[in-house]
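ok trying this again, last paste got cut off
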Amino acid sequence: MRPQIVPKSAHKPKSVYAQTLAKLRPAILGVLALSAATNVLMLTGSIYMLQVYDRVLTSGSMPTLYGLFAIVIILYGFLLVYDALRARLLSRVALRIDANLAKASFGHWLDTGLPDDSKQDTSQPLRDVETLRKVIASPITAAIFDLPFVPIFLVVLFIIHPWLGILTITGVGIAALIALGNRLITAKSIDRTTTSDNTEREFTEKSRRNAESIIGMGMQRAVTQRWSGLHNEMLSSSQAGSDPADVLASASRAFRMLLQSAILTLGAVLVLQGQITAGMIIAASILSGRVLAPIDQMIGQWRTVGRAMSAHKRLRDVFASGTDEPAYIDLPDPTGQITVTNLTKLTPRRPGTDSSQILSGISFELAPGDGLGVIGSSASGKSTLARLIVGASQPDEGEIRLDGATPDQWNPDVFGRFIGYLPQSVELIPGTIRDNISRFQPDISDEEVIAAARMTGVHDMILGLPEGYATRLGFAGDPTPLSGGQIQRIGLARAVCGMPKLVVMDEPNSNLDIAGDQALTKTIAALRAAGTAVIVMAHRPSALASLDKLMVLDKGKIKLFGDKDSILAPSQKHTEPDAPAKTPAEPQPSAFVRATHGSRIAQQAGPQRLRGVS
């Protein structure tokens, strides 16, 4: 009976994002409570002005003034404490969001880098998390929490005089319409600006990574013009939303000042009519300003708020398909028995087109220590097969089993220890040479790293570098001191570190010289001798020297599969028993050469060279 994954629960789980927001509810309630206290204490100024004008100035009592001022000092002290606590709590909320989502966002970002188009999207969760963190910790969030307490100031205005409250409510309504107009006008612009900005950043990053080709082939002007077009498009979409937003923000500020003047005018009329006192005019002016302050601040920072709302929606969609973390069974270490059954991979379906098959019905088995060479013409599906076997891409049909278990039955961190993979294009991760060979695993010992380097023949080369295994690679300001062949050999050392049970190599000798080819042959032989199953996707016949099985792919299907020597053996023409002997003819092409009539190996090597491969 095969191992099973035991789920923790049968209920539909919340996404990581939803769980993070749920955990932050107590902190949000705390911010709300502090906002209530802060807004109540902000009545201090208007009440103090009211008492000074209506009580102190009329009575001329200095003790009353000193007493009132002492109370004001105490209340503003509490305001300072509560406001600081609110700002600190908001910053902690922002950090908690980042801490809870950063790893998951980075994992999602890595997934979008896989060469599987079904996983490609334009979301950038790391940048969205950063946007949320910055906005939540900014003063605009405090202004948003002030909005629910605007009615407190309106109630006080109505107590002073109903007409003052009505005038302020009218002003709030007009300010809200301005804010709504700002939202409607800039919403599409914000989305377009975000998309354009992401496109420009991606083009910039990839252009820098291809600087060698761009400069070497004189493409600077053309690439710069293309970047300039993308940059101008981003600026244009940004400006298209910025112009009306700036106008509306200015209108909001001007209206706020006009409303305060209108409050003073109405207050003066009411004083002249004997309905309110002179001190109430100043208090009403301060209160109306407090009513409009958060609204005015939101209008002025609406583009920032809009970016945060867009980031929130994207993160919610990215993490929408949350699942419970399965409880993996601790399976025994695999021996290297590989079974591939009916493996099929389709091209991504585009609007108006049908999917075509990249691979179709691939089935084979490998025992521990087997070595399989996979050959075929370009676009025959070799690299796709390599990615499917190591789990960097998912099949549309079929399955892959390691010692009878599918990859999803293993804990991914554990499963990765048993897999070695050398992709067709090798890029080292910023870190030291030791970090890269050890796969950044802290529990990989120096002895294992050195053993992998010795096996692949790069130990002496590494020791020849000024800093040896501590040589930094990929960091800004640290030019990589390695050639393409050396990088490929370090990538091979990374693949074999820890002696995994399955090693897949895609064009492992594409950048190697004769010494590198010889080291590769010895590495494959050593892996097989240790019981590791090795699969090599190859164009050059030298990569097949230490392998015992061969697969020929043609248009995504297996054309030949079997013992390498049998496939590479030259064909023999059988003659009749009584036929006279003939002069020996030239050796005939092998079955392999006939099967791969268009392949690079057949064209470069010919039957004589292939016959010598063993």
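PB: full thing came through this time. The two ends are 40 Å apart (CA to CA).
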